[in-house]
Amino acid sequence: MRAIGVIRHSPGRRMNREEFEDLLRSAGYEVVAILEQRRKEHPRYNIGKGKVRELKALVDELKPDKVVFANRLTPGQAYNLWKELGVEVIDKWQLVLEIFEGRAHSKEAKLQVELASLQYEVPLVKEAIRRIKLGDRAGFKGMGEYQTRQYLKHIRYRMGRIRKELERVKADRAVKRRRREEVGFVLMALAGYTNAGKSTLLNALAEESVEARNQMFTTLDTTTRRFKLGGKRVLVTDTVGFIDGLPPFIVEAFHSTLEEIVKADVMLLVLDVSEPWGEVRRKLLASLDVLRELKALDKPMVVVLNKIDLTAEEDVEDKRTRLMEIMEERGLDVRLVAVSAKLGRLEELYRALEEIILTLPKYGSFEITVAEPENVPKVMALVNSIGEVLEVEYGEETRIRAYLQTGMIKELTRLGVKIKRLDHPHQREGLEDNERDNYGG
Question: According to the annotation, is 307 in a ligand binding site?
């Protein structure tokens, strides 16, 4: 498949040509030409009339299968361009959906891609109906007015069915999440711009071999793996990558997947620190925009500066300082750590995570009283797997003071111990009466 790319740079904002070409190649297109223009959006064609004539000459000469715009096209603009050029015209978001279609493997991912595609198609079908009324074209995909209206009705019906199926997936995921918390797992989610190295980081943390390629949108299917951090059990989930200007219809379609970020205890926001500063900044801001839309900026966050093996240490530290300034300007309390997921250089990340875990709301400071000496080894082993032992006092009864996950209290009480919550500055003050009863304190 051959494609001509078109980029309209708005005054004061230049679009990233290299990223657009990477998108085209990721979708399997041979890029035969890129046409660029700097101007305000033309209401009829997006680009100016002169550029349309220039584009028409390129189409006639190069015979591409499609013309792909880096800018979002309105249904009217897409139709006007198709009429002028005589070749299929799509925009960046249709291109992204084509990539998604080729990368979706699980039933959930396929449903999400289909939902996003249908949401994108609705305004196009509405525009087709409007054009039919004006006598401007035969219909949508060669259909007449009645067929086009029936197709719109079918799209809406199918979207409703998909949303119901995704709600069931969401409910199942919530059950699994609660079960994971009950057995003492800390939940972490990887977020960030596409191709920042999230899947490679997942592999490094969990010593796994999840597919990780140097291409955009490798991950569409949610992947969760476990690893141990200082004896604590952690689950880390990889999620779909972000891209600049990610439209609401894609965020909505992938909400059940992106919800893993919202529900996680800790978020790891991954950045490719080896890129030029302008790109690092752009991708950080694009990621923060999506996270803001998801209402996920209020949780503990570690900004992971990945790919430090591809740049100098001085460059990493300079970017770390600049990124911290951006975060402070936005009132975000985060930690920035430098890693190389590819080389397994994660020491700084491990240290930050161990410190953060014990400040999570799900942790508290407790005193555990063990009456039976033979139960002490079992209790100590369980405590070390779900928290951190602070002090042990041996006597007729053994008293263990420790940080623990509150969700694991029931597991400990099955061993016949008594548990009392202690004050801790990182935790909420006091407990409800029924909570105290559950703890046996």
Answer: yes
Is 219 annotated to bind a ligand? Reply is yes
Name residue 178's amino acid: R
Distance CA 162, CA 160 (A): 6
Name the region of 404 (left: φ>0; alpha: ψ -120 to 50; beta: rest).
beta
Q: Please identify, among 100, 131, 156, the residue that sits at the C-terminal boundary of a domain.
A: 100
For the chain, what is the radius of gyration of the CA atoms? 27
- 63 among the known binding-site residues? no
Nearest Cα residue to 301 out of 269, 341, 262: 269
Is 378 annotated as ligand-binding?
A: no
Mean pLDDT, contiguous 10-residue spans, the chain (441 residues): 95 90 91 96 96 96 96 90 92 88 80 88 84 65 74 93 90 80 81 90 85 60 82 84 79 77 93 96 94 91 97 97 96 95 95 88 86 88 80 91 80 86 51 38 37
Other beta carbons within 10 angstroms of residue 402's beta carbon come to 24
Q: Which residue has the tokens 């591409």?
A: 64
For residue 88, list its beta bridge partners: 66
Same domain assignment for residues 296 and 268? yes
413 annotated to bind ligand: no
CB of 143 closer than 8 Å to CB of 153: no
Measure the CA–CA gap between 257 and 318, rounded to whole angstroms: 34
3-state SS track over 32-75 = EEEEEEECCCECCCECCHHHHHHHHHHHHHHCCCEEEECCCCCH
> Which tokens hold the place of 312?
């100098």
Instruction: Say how many domains are in the chain.
Output: 4
Question: Is 106 annotated as a binding-site member?
Answer: no
371 annotated ligand binder:
no
**Residue 139: which domain range?**
104-165
Q: Is 136 annotated as a binding residue?
A: no
Same domain, 225 and 312: yes
What would the DSSP string read from start to end of 195-217? TSSHHHHHHHHHT------SSTT
Same domain? For 351 and 237 the reply is yes
pTM exceeds cut of 0.90: no
Q: In whole angstroms, give the CA distance from residue 306 to residue 340.
A: 5
**Residue 286 assigned to a binding site:** no
Return the amino acid letter for 303: V
